């Protein structure tokens, strides 16, 4: 899902990150959208944690079940490793924890929420930056007979 994000998937991910930022910052989002976004982000960050474990184990092969987890980690690593370096795993774990707490209806610590909001913001910025510099597709020609 994440290795080579297509235009439609990228738009969905951007919206999920934008809405995730609103939720983490205690903004207004409909209950159904809140649940949907938190589920998507929980899947992504729990997958990224699993993908991180696969990388740390230096596994030569990734099982089919673990492919989405590995791709989630690879995407986050590609966008944010230069920003967070060795601390990236801690930020992924914190994001996963905050999203899980929000899903349960609990209130995370303000300092942790702030760090996760910054993490989501940087991920969103990196995604937008990459899409801004991606070459445009060649125009299509229509053959009219």
Description:
This protein is mainly α and 145 residues long. The chain has one domain (7-130). It is built from five helices and no strands. It has helices spanning 7-24, 31-56, 67-84, 88-104, 110-133. It is globular and about 60 Å long. The mean pLDDT is 86.
Shape: globular
**Main beta sheet:** none
**Could you state the order of secondary-structure elements as H and E?**
HHHHH
Structural class: mainly alpha
Which parts are unreliable, with pLDDT below 50 for 5 consecutive residues or more? none
Tally of individual helices: 5
Radius of gyration: 17 Å
Please, how many domains? 1
Q: What is the distance, rounded to the nearest whole angstrom, between the alpha carbons of the first and last residues?
A: 39 Å
